[in-house]
Structures are given as C-alpha cells and as structure tokens.
Amino acid sequence: MGSKQIAQETFDDAVQENITEFEMDPEEAVREAVQQFESQGVDLSNIVKAVRPPASENGQRQKHQILLTLDALGSAVAGSDVAELPEQLSAFAAQCKEQLAFRYLAAQNGAYPVVFSACQLAAGDRGLLLQAFSTLSALLDGQPDLLDAAGRELLLRSLRERREDAEMTLAGIRCVRHACLKHEQNRQDFVKGGILPLLTGAITQHGSSAEVVRTAASALRIMTFDDDIRVPFGHAHDHAKMIVLENDGLRVLIEAAKAFTDNSGVLSELCATLSRLSVRNEFCQEIVDLGGLNFMVTLLADCMEHPDVVKQVLSAIRAVAGNDDVKDAIVDAGGTDLIVLAISQHLGNPQICEQGCAALCMLALRKPENCSVIMEGGGALAALQAMKAHPREVAVQKQACMLIRNLVSRSRDFSRPILEMGAEDLIAEARAAHRDCDDVARAALRDLGCKVELRELWTGQKGSLAQ
What we know:
The chain is mainly α.
C-alpha cells in the first residue's frame, strides 16, 4: 500500500490525458492511470477508479455519478421534499456501500451535512428515519471523523426514545459502530453520553433478535478497542470495567447466548466480546460462574468446521485463562483436547495455530498438572507441527516457543520427549528467522536443556555489542 496521496481531480486528469493524448479506450485509460500512480507508491484506496463523464459543450466539467446522486439528495433536503427523500436516500446509500472511494469523494463534497439534515427531516417518520440512519451508517463506514456532536446527540436520543423498536435500535447501533471504530474521541464521547447502558439494554430487550444482539455486542467490543493511532493512550480498560461493573455486561452477554445455541455467528460475536472484557481476575472467574466457559467449550466442539468461530473461541479461552483457577476449570471441561484438535484440524490457518498455542500456553503457565494433560493430549506435538507449517509467521513461532517453555520449565521430564519430536531445530530456526522470537526461543532452548549460543548484535556504536 502506497503512502502518497493524490486528489480525485489529479487522477481524473490523468485518465482524460490517456484518452485524448494516447487515444486509449476508457477502460484501458483507467487501468493505465492506476498502474502509473501505484508504481509511484500512491495510495489509491480513496480514489474513484472510473472515467468521469466528458465536459459539456460549454466546457463545464462533469461530475462522477456519486456526486450527481448527492446533488439530487441535497436538492430534496434543501426543498424539504419528504416525498422525494426515500428514493434519493436509497440511491445514495447504495452507491456509498459499493466502495470506500465513492463515500470518501462524497464526504469531500459535503455529504455529511446533507445526510444529517435528512435525518432531522425524517425525525417524525419512522420508515424514513430508518432509511436516513441506514444512509448515515453507509457514509460513516471507514470515515468516523465525519460525525459531529449534533450527530452523536441525534443517535443517542433516538436510541433512548425508540429503545422498544428493534429495527430503529439496530439502525442506530450500526451508526455508532462505524463512528467508534478507530476513533477514540468518539468512543469516549459516546460513553460519556450514556451509550453503554443503551447497548446492554438493547441486548436484553431484543434478546430474540440475532442481528440486534450481534451488532450491539460488536459495538460493546469496539468500545474496548485501542485502535486509534492518533491517540497515545485510550480508555479501553476503563470502558471494559464500566461495561462489566456498571452495566452487568458479562451476565447480559452470557444470558443472550442461551437464545442462540444454533447460531454460530451470534455466539462467535459474544465470545469475541467476552474476551475483550476479561481484563481482571475476578471478571474471568465470573464468566465461568455464569456459565460462559460451558458455552465456549460447547461452541468449540460443535463448530469445529467453522474457522472464524474457532479462532474467536480460542481467543476467548486464552483471555479467561489469565485466572489460575479458571485454567483448572478449562482443563476439567476438556478444553485442552479441543484446543489441540482445533490446531490439528486447522493446521493451515495461522491465526488458529497462534490462538491455539497461546491458549495452551496460558493453561500451562505455573500449572505442572495442566502440563501433563497437555502433553498427554498431544499439545506439544501440535505446537511443533504449527511451527513447521508456518515458518514465516512470527506470531505462531512465538506462541509455540512460549508454550514449549511453559511445558518444561517446571516439568523437566518432558524435555526429552519434546526434543525427540524435533523441537530444538524448529526453535533454533525460529530464532534465526525472526528477531522478535530471540528471547522466547532462547528461553525455550535453555529450559529444554539445550546449549544456547548468545546472539551478538552490532548496534552501530563504537564498542557496543548487544546480546
């Protein structure tokens, strides 16, 4: 992905030049312009890669279709033409959903104020407001900076006043999700505005609606993200604690799971959210006490053929295993065998291998008795097979090395059988291939009883060697 940016007009001019100067047909002109800019390291993700209609007879530049649609929507809004709004909102939303470049160009040309005004115009008409919120959601997707304080208040007010309406709740939460992803300030502002009880309340009130439960759980999870690179420190941990302590979030999510025992998509989302809330020892224990561990283990067993679900469940098990008592509960529930099976069955999937090794690593930490169960269940062999299958995946290599170390650090009798599986060569290869693996690989080799050569790294400073 290139790091340089260009304006839409620059791209359009290059396409037009290819057509007029080099007599290319339109499709070829666009392809040539794309290749030209990408070869120069230009990021074209926000550029509409299409031929703009030719200039009119008076020389006036024509607009891309998304801007023509925006103009029509703007005219309907400016004239308060409620009868015309449904068609215009539908057309604009459909084009926004096609690709980020369309909605980015629209946003650059004043789309947000137009859509926000449409939401205000539609306030008294439920069907029209649903359409307006759907359009706002489409526009905000990937563009959370667009939302302003007035838009935030409009969404919060709608979620409060129409909380009994499942469709309206879903439409509002979708807007909130897009506004909070990769935007720390929006997250903090929504939390201050009272979004958390509205989200947990939506799950409780509309517990039979798969889409509401899944989307609200996803929105709760996004509130615990720390994904805005513009902000040095976010409030992810504080938000997670608020969801659990002030809004009974763990109980709400686990109770919701009971209505969707056959819906792997909803259960996967609930698992992913629970893993983000496992930020304290007592929270991990509460998940077990509420029956969350049982549903995770059952879900893993029943959905072994669905890699996305498997990955989320493994991540959740890894998270709750931060509590030493929960480690034992997971092992007692047969979790280790299922984790090993997941790694073996999805050996070609690096994310599952990483999460599986990480979960076993947590279960083995400070627990020699659990190490015995993992060894007997083939956990060490599965980890080494994962290393062999993904030599270039540093995350897989690191987690496997840490698992091997945890298995032998308090149970030296396991060193020989693990070495006989070929561990030394695989760990040495990981150390040589990945600088980030050096410390964990060296520790694993040392605890296996292997001779470890200290690696010396020249720092570029006179007389300075780092090992």
